[in-house]
Design goal:
Length: 419
């Protein structure tokens, strides 16, 4: 099995639109939540979201979208994109530049791309309504490409001329973590030399507000209280969107190019709850299995893990389920292993989360810190056995675990190692 390294990252997130801004926010525990203007209506119980700054993508006319001048997106390209397609494209451009890749490096049969998103309910709803109102032949020709769940990989593979393995993943909030794991396999097994891993979500009314019907969103009006994983008073998650891209490369490619390394992606594991379509197993059974598989695959013992980037979304059931899984696996090492949830800062990015948080872990290892878990006033007694850090620690973790959990009890754990 070949070693796999992260050599580039790109971010469009609620806490920053590049690696420098994201790193600063993680260190300073600066969150991206606001009272979201579209939610400020009497019939909307949710008030807080974590939107993307410096982009305007709230119209169905893509030509009217606004984004930073450094990104060059032509009109004919935009017409095939969702809002999160724009975020992912910009993050992809950052990652290519960060890894110092030429077009010859990434546009070849040895380089692939795995992506994840939930599609764009915003655009899909609009195009379906237009079809019903005006007829089939008045549909936007690229409406399907722009709105369904494969839109990110469709666009990035074509625009960046990717010729290797490509596909999309759909396991809800575990989606881009699955993409990360299977991209690792492509390189470790010698099928590809390089993989891009992409996560994206619109993070607008249509992609966030339906979760209110599940009673999954926080009803807090104060942005500093709405997302507080592990806190006894948490009442749901805060929705966000954006795009995140990581570049994975084989050891041979790293040596050939003299590439800088963030960290090694040492292995991964997955496991399923077999329990409920929407609710985590009460004992975290599937996540326990995912963690065990990840540790075994990467050759890491539980007592070697310095930091866990928890999936913890700030929901009453989900946080406890994950806490129980961590307590079961790390029971002999609880005081040593720091735990935090960066969703206290970003909000929950749904299928974006796994890739975004993998990028956070890469930054933490390379730059030498462990981000704290913000907004905690009182730890939930069910989570009290964990070493949940409330402030950022200026220490470089040598081994990091990142968890992601999705609907149907899909669980993924990724292991990263300093080099």
């Amino acid at each position: 099995m070949r070693k796999v390294y992260i050599t580039g990252v790109g971010f469009i997130t609620s806490i920053g639109n590049d690696a420098v801004a994201v790193s600063d926010s993680l260190r300073e525990l600066r969150h991206g939540m606001i009272q979201y203007q579209p939610f400020q209506k009497a019939d909307v119980p949710v008030k807080v979201a974590a939107p993307i700054r410096d982009f305007i993508t709230d119209t169905t006319e893509a030509e009217d979208w606004v984004f930073p001048a450094r990104y060059n997106l032509r009109r004919e390209v935009l017409r095939g994109m969702a809002p999160h397609g724009v975020y992912a494209y910009c993050a992809m451009q950052q990652a290519v530049e960060d890894a110092k890749l030429s077009e010859a490096d990434y546009s070849n049969p040895q380089t692939g791309l795995y992506a994840a998103s939930g599609g764009s309910p915003f655009l899909l709803g609009h195009y379906l309504e237009r079809m019903r109102k005006y007829g089939v032949m008045r549909c936007q020709p690229l409406g399907i490409v722009a709105s369904i769940s494969g839109t990110v990989n469709f666009n990035l593979v074509s625009q960046f001329k990717i010729k290797g393995a490509s596909t999309g993943f759909s396991s809800a909030c575990a989606s881009s973590a699955h993409a990360m794991g299977f991209a690792y396999d492509e390189i470790a097994l010698g099928r590809q030399k390089r993989m891009f891993v992409v996560g994206g979500e619109d993070g607008n009314v249509e992609s966030i507000l339906p979760f209110a019907g599940m009673r999954a969103l926080s009803l807090q009006a104060d942005p500093a209280l709405a997302s507080r994983p592990f806190d006894a008073a948490r009442d749901g998650f805060v929705g966000t969107g954006g795009g995140a891209v990581l570049v994975l490369e084989s050891e041979e490619e790293v040596e050939r190019r003299g590439a800088k390394i963030y960290c090694e992606l040492a292995g991964w594991g997955q496991g399923s709850d077999g329990h409920n379509v929407a609710i985590s197993h009460p004992e975290g059974a599937g996540l326990q299995l995912a963690i065990e598989n990840a540790l075994r695959a990467s050759g890491v013992e539980a007592d070697e893990v310095d930091y866990i980037n928890a999936h913890a979304t700030s929901t009453p059931i989900g946080d406890i389920s994950e806490a129980k899984a961590i307590l079961a696996i790390f029971k002999n090492n609880l005081a040593r292993t720091a735990v935090s949830s960066t969703k206290a800062l970003t909000g929950h990015g749904l299928s974006l989360s796994g890739a975004m948080e993998a990028g956070f872990c890469a930054l933490a290892i390379k730059e030498g810190f462990m981000p704290g878990s913000a907004h905690i006033t009182k730890i939930d007694p069910a989570c009290a056995g964990l070493n949940i850090i409330r402030a950022t620690l200026p220490q470089r973790p040598q081994v990091v675990l990142s968890n992601s959990c999705g609907f149907g009890g899909a669980n993924v754990s990724l292991v990263f190692r300093a080099v």
